């Protein structure tokens, strides 16, 4: 099981998809190639990895790295909920479609949702971005968009974004109810 890693007082929390082979072997999220890109993006905004908390939607590696199944997401979400509740971060960054769709309760894809921030549970700000593995496959354009999203993260952490964040995506008609469903 790969539970999560990081500071218990983190202001910033990342939620990925599921452990891969390296994570499974080492028992820590994002230690493989995708993790190295995450480290690079954090370094760009001067945030030490030790200051953040990192978790995944699934706590175990899906066989052959296949996509998480709905019943697996259901079985694991209580752990993620409690991790978020205990850490109580100011900013939650969802990495890729699985984390974003679960935490924003939407079917809209990451390409449309990223690039902005959303008001979220416990007064936190949620910022969706691509999964680092997608940037490794997708090249410089995807990486540049991730850099922009991380810059937004750093602005929010520094209190430099003064306008109100948008609410949930239109597809989520009752955000409060949708989040209660996730965190029940
Ligand atoms: N990809 C993820 O989504 N999580 C990890 O921990 C590693 C790779």
Task: Please name the CATH topology.
Answer: Uracil-DNA Glycosylase, subunit E
Span from first to last CA? 23 Å
Overall pLDDT: 92
Q: What number of domains?
A: 1
| Number of strand segments | 6
Q: Strands across the major sheet, in which order?
A: 1-3-2-4-6-5
**Which word captures the global form?**
globular
Number of helices: 8
CATH class label: Alpha Beta
H/E element order: EEHHEHEHHEEHHH
Structural class: alpha/beta
Report the β-strand fraction as a percent range: 5-15%
Can you offer a commentary on this structure?
The structure is a single chain. The protein is of the alpha/beta class. It has helices at residues 21-26, 33-44, 70-87, 97-104, 110-113, 132-138, 140-157, 175-182, and strands at 4-6, 12-16, 53-56, 91-95, 118-119, 125-129. It has a six-stranded mixed beta sheet, sandwiched between helices. Strand 5 (118-119) and strand 6 (125-129) form a beta hairpin. Bound molecules: uracil. Uracil is lined by residues 16-20, 23, 29-30, 32, 34, 56, 133.
Outline the fold blueprint.
Blueprint: E1 4-6, E2 12-16, H1 21-26, H2 33-44, E3 53-56, H3 70-87, E4 91-95, H4 97-104, H5 110-113, E5 118-119, E6 125-129, H6 132-138, H7 140-157, H8 175-182
Parallel strand pairs: 2-3, 2-4, 4-6
Antiparallel strand pairs: 1-3, 5-6
Helix pairs in contact: 6-7
Bound molecules: uracil (URA).
Uracil is lined by residues 16-20, 23, 29-30, 32, 34, 56, 133.
């Amino acid at each position: 099981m790969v539970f999560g890693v990081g500071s218990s007082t983190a202001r910033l929390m990342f939620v990925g998809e599921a452990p891969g082979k390296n994570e499974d072997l080492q028992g820590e999220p994002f230690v493989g190639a995708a993790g190295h890109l995450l480290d690079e993006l954090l370094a760009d905004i001067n945030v030490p990895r030790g200051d953040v908390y990192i978790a995944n939607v699934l706590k175990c590696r899906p066989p052959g790295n296949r996509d998480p199944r709905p019943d697996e997401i259901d079985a694991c979400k209580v752990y993620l909920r409690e991790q978020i509740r205990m850490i109580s971060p100011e900013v939650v960054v969802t990495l890729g479609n699985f984390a974003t769709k679960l935490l924003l309760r939407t079917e809209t894809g990451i390409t449309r949702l990223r690039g902005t921030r959303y008001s979220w549970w416990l007064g936190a700000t949620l910022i969706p971005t691509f999964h680092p593995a997608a940037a490794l496959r997708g090249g410089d354009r995807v990486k540049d968009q991730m850099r922009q999203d991380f810059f937004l993260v750093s602005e929010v952490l520094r209190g430099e974004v003064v306008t109100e964040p948008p609410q949930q995506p239109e597809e989520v008609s009752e955000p409060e109810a949708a989040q209660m469903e996730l965190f029940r």
